[in-house]
Design brief:
This protein is an alpha/beta fold. The chain has 10 helices and 5 strands, in the order βαβαααααβαβααβα.
Length: about 220
């Protein structure tokens, strides 16, 4: 079984994807990691994030081992990593370089330890439309801009990251604009996606609602 979960930042995709992967004993692929890895690598190498050729080169050289090493960097999940990922993911050549890696995973999904899995849960922004259009079940998770900015701000505060709600809101607004207006694979629901607005939901309610939908469709 292949499940895709798309949506904007801080909508609840990651929490839901991880929970469904655990519940159904499926592999979990956070597609945002590949773009965060490319973006952070460019930041660390002091490369221009607006240089598509440089970003493409980094993307083509990215290995799974390198991605996992970069994921342990403190800025990988910070706003720095998020903004860098959003910028490089807008480049068609970068997306093309990383797409095959993501698609191949659905054909032979494995757990983190390398053992085979009977399916996968994808967490991203175009997994239901581009990466796995053949997925069995597709979700598009969203929430109001204010709710998402508040969630992300609280995450940063909990991690000791010095920022303000206003800055997080501004960055999120700009990121949503880039993601929805990019020429290749813009952020949008798949035609057959289940829409979920989590603005008034906690994580337990969100997970329960998704499992109910999956069980009904199975």
């Amino acid at each position: 079984m292949i499940i895709t979960i798309d949506g904007p930042a801080a909508a609840g995709k990651g929490t839901l994807a991880a929970a469904l992967a655990k519940h159904y004993k499926l592999a979990y692929f956070d597609t945002g990691m590949v773009y965060r890895a490319v973006g952070l690598q460019m930041v660390l190498q002091k490369l221009d994030l607006t240089d598509e050729s440089a970003a493409e080169k980094v993307a083509k050289q990215l290995t799974f081992t390198q991605m996992m090493e970069l994921s342990r960097h403190p800025d990988f999940r910070s706003d720095v990593g998020g903004q860098a990922a959003s910028k490089v993911s807008a480049f068609p050549k970068v997306r093309a370089a990383l797409l095959k890696m993501q698609q191949d995973f659905s054909l032979n999904p494995v757990f983190a330890d390398g053992t085979p899995a009977n399916g996968a849960v994808y967490d991203g922004r175009d997994t239901g439309t581009v990466v796995c259009p053949h997925a069995d079940i597709k979700f598009f998770v969203t929430a109001s801009m204010e709710v998402r900015a508040e969630r992300r701000y609280k995450e940063f505060v909990a991690k000791g990251i010095n920022t303000t709600y206003e800055k997080v809101l501004q960055d999120m607004t700009e990121r949503d604009k880039r993601d929805s207006e990019r020429a290749t694979a813009p952020l949008k629901p798949a035609e057959n996606a289940v829409m979920m607005d989590t603005s008034a939901m906690n994580s337990e309610q969100e997970i329960a609602a998704a499992i109910k939908i999956i069980e009904e469709r199975k």
